[in-house]
Amino acid sequence: MTAASPPFPPHRVSGFTLVEMAVVMLILTLLAGGLSTSLGTQLTRRAEANTDEALAEARDALLGYAVRKGMFPCPAKSATDGSEDREAGACQTHTGLLPWATLGIVGTDGWGRRLRYAVSAGYTHKITALDDGDIDIFTRNGSGGILKLTTEGGRTPVVILSHGANGLGATTQEGQGYPPPANGSDEATNAIPNGRQFYSRSLSENAAAPGGAFDDRLTWLSPNLIANRLISTGHFP
């Protein structure tokens, strides 16, 4: 007589318990958050680098225009018309958008917004003398105190500006304006329509800091640099 086979052990269904699934979901969430933060940081750094390149290109184009024409162009007619706004030889404004079409460049920052441009009136006609211009540029020291960055006279004739990642005060390529910066902030000073004063300082997300949060990026052409370029190319009397 054949002995009866021993009963099979109870079948154990394989799979994750609720606790194991919760742990897995937590790990995936943390990984996704880390990847998202890393990607966001990389995109921001790339936009900042592209903005710095755009500002440098604008400086070179403006200097090239000055060498060719003996003067600087007026600001653009509008966000959609990049030719300089000059009538009967005179600029209609001296603070506005960079005249990218006149300069033959793209004229946008790393976020695709129009670069801003300010120029002293005396530099938009045939340059026969190089004064300090009428634009003041300031920065802040570690304690928030205001310092001048420009020449001994305290001024400069040309400024080019990006309103940074937050875009406050900026203009899109289609002509749409972003919300203005907080009143009284350094970014608000940079966004004044006919401004003759600008701030250039370290990036800050602290709205309570002196001058408020700040992510604008700007450059300028000093009268000494302009003189050097015009004299070295034989275009200054």
At a glance:
By secondary structure, the chain is of the alpha+beta class.
| Unreliable segments of 5+ consecutive residues | none
Number of strands: 9
Assess the beta-strand content as a share of residues. Answer: 5-15%
Assign an overall shape: elongated
Strand order of the largest sheet: 3-4-7-9
The N- to C-terminal Cα distance equals 125 Å
Average of pLDDT: 89
Q: What share of the residues lie within helices?
A: 25-40%
What is the count of helical runs?
A: 4
Rg, Cα atoms, Å: 28 Å
Summarize the biggest pleated sheet: 4 strands, antiparallel
Classification by helices and strands = alpha+beta
Your description of this structure?
30% of the residues lie in helices and 14% in strands. The protein contains four helices and nine strands, in the order αβββαββββαββα. Strands 3-4-7-9 form a four-stranded antiparallel sheet. A three-stranded mixed sheet has the order 6-5-8. A hairpin with a 5-residue loop joins β5 and β6 (146-148). The longest helix is centred in the N-terminal third of the chain and has 52 residues, at 18-69. The model has no long low-confidence stretch (mean pLDDT 89).
